[in-house]
Amino acid sequence: MxxxxxxxxxxxxxxxxxxxxxxxxxxxxxxxxxxxHSKLAIxxxxxxxxxxxxxxxxxxxxVAAAGFLxxxxxxxxxxxxxxxxDPQFDKESWSKAHNTDKGYEDAKAIIAxxxxxxxxxxxxxxFCWGGKVAVKLASSxxxxxxxxxxxxxxxxxxxxxxxxxxxxxxxxxxxASPLEQMKQFGEKLSVKxx
Length: 194
Hints:
The chain is built from 6 helices and 7 strands. It is an alpha/beta fold. It has a 7-stranded mixed β-sheet with strand order 1-2-4-3-5-6-7. Strand 1 and strand 2 form a beta hairpin. The chain is globular and about 45 Å long.
């Protein structure tokens, strides 16, 4: 799960933000934007704040403007972690219900749905919680490339399993993905022949 830094400035969610539309894709409500018949698709995987975050949708729209079909699924089924200030909110139960293993399985259904729409090259980018899902996808050939942004709970084993080109973007000061760890990941990846 995310570090406490992430919760200091949560987004105000907006189900109507963005130029795209929300549709069912692979069994999940998904914000879709971009040319619907593009052969190139990007799966954007949110942090724990979910797919209604306006800046995430703005980013999806910018990527779509470059010719990609962009899918931003609701991996939390309408239950993002926005309730963190609620004394009744149980972060541990939420984490168990919305773990990255389930996110990975759900992401595979989204990828299959994108392929059925005609996408022949799919990339994935994951933020924080979504970074763990994206690195799991990068251990398969289901995607062509991955980007991890401020990834959370990514391990050396995850990096060892990577099979596709990957970029890891960490912050200078980040408790969830410290700079030293990001450097270690970079060193591990640099010795891979592929």
